[in-house]
Amino acid sequence: MNVLVTGATGFVGSHVVDVLLERGHSVSFIARATSNMRWLEGKPVQRVDGSLFDLHSLKDAVVGADVVIHVAGLTAARNEAEFLRGNRDATQNLVDAIRTYRPGLTRYLHLSSLAVSGPSKDSEHPKVEDEPLHPITAYGRTKKLAEDIVRGMTDVPWTIVRPPAVYGPRDSAILTFFQAVDKGLATFIGFDEKRVSLVHVRDLARGIVDAAFAPVAEGQIYNISSDETYTWPEVASLTGAILGKRRLIKVRLPHALVLGIAGVSGAFTKMLGKPSVLDYEKGVDIIQRYWTCSNAKARRDLGYRQEISLKDGLSDTVQWYREQKWL
């Protein structure tokens, strides 16, 4: 099929493109000529000039598509208005373009986030797809508003995928964690046990493509995640072993200190007019005890399985970072 991927030049989107090409699909993507397309170089993909903030510019992109996979979105912004523009408004423009220029689309796949669901209440109750939504950050709230647009569609067949934290080759967001462990330092938030669901980007990309083409997935929402949950000390110890660090200096930061640092960081970057990767809301996010979800529905409906273990996924990521001279 002809598949249009938004966000194809980024971390997750470029891996979705790889899976689509492996399965024999034709792939196009939306980008300006000035975009950084390093992860797509040499691949048989077609760039369509356009912008998610310009409805009319999306005509050429959507008119020939059988399936649209919307990966693009903002994970960091200067304020909630920017998050709204990058997550809610961009989704609305894309949906309106499909309705206007490509009626009869086979499927629209929307990549959302576990941030829409909010943290789990305890270790025994990972988030499932039909629970009430409780986002706690501007990012989560605006991704929920984007989901509201998608779920409100009755004329376009849709599927939503919610991943937890994603890691793997081409990711720069979690690089600082690997760099710290490579220096023998592991920093943990708070003195309580925190558990997280994780997903390697290749498992996520495979789950996204499976969901986009499965008839049973129409009108459904799926958590695409690891089978198990992990503590950060487990992740850090395994990463340290892979990096050849026999001992790690382990430092725990009290929640109050984390929130204070996050607040100062957010205020400083706001004064500079830059998006903040750490502000007070992000501080609230990272002090939560449980960011976990169940992938049971995806396993049942899609036959999804976590194919890449945490050990193999971390090894894969470390190897790639080293090849890129990032470590």
Give a structural overview.
With 327 residues, the protein is of the alpha/beta class. The protein has a domain at 2-167 and 199-225 and 292-307: 3-Layer(aba) Sandwich (Rossmann fold). 40% of the residues lie in helices and 17% in strands. It has eleven helices and 14 strands. The protein has helices at 11-22, 59-62, 80-101, 138-151, 175-182, 201-213, 232-243, 255-272, 280-286, 296-302, 310-323, and strands spanning 2-6, 26-30, 45-48, 67-70, 107-111, 158-162, 165-167, 185-189, 195-196, 198-200, 220-223, 230-231, 249-253, 290-291. It has a seven-stranded parallel β-sheet with strand order 3-2-1-4-5-6-11, with helices on both faces. α1 packs across α6 (201-213). The chain is globular and about 55 Å long. The two termini are 39 Å apart.
Radius of gyration: 19 Å
- Percent of residues in helices comes to 40-55%
N-to-C SSE string, H for helix and E for strand: EHEEHEHEHEEHEEEHEEHEHHEHH
CATH topology tier name of the domain at 2-167 and 199-225 and 292-307: Rossmann fold
Taking the alpha carbons of the first and last residues, their distance comes to 39 Å
CATH architecture label name of the domain at 2-167 and 199-225 and 292-307: 3-Layer(aba) Sandwich
Q: Considering the protein shown, what is the CATH homologous superfamily of the domain at 2-167 and 199-225 and 292-307?
A: NAD(P)-binding Rossmann-like Domain
What is the arithmetic mean of pLDDT? Answer: 96
Number of helical runs? 11
Q: State the name of the first-level CATH class of the domain at 2-167 and 199-225 and 292-307.
A: Alpha Beta
Q: Biggest β-sheet, characterized?
A: 7 strands, parallel
Number of strands: 14
- Helix/strand structural class: alpha/beta
Which percent band covers the strand fraction?
15-25%
User: If strands are numbered along the chain, what order do they take across the biggest sheet?
Assistant: 3-2-1-4-5-6-11
Query: What best-fitting shape do the alpha-carbon axes yield?
Result: globular
**Assembly form of the protein:** single chain
pLDDT below 50 for ≥5 consecutive residues: which ranges? none
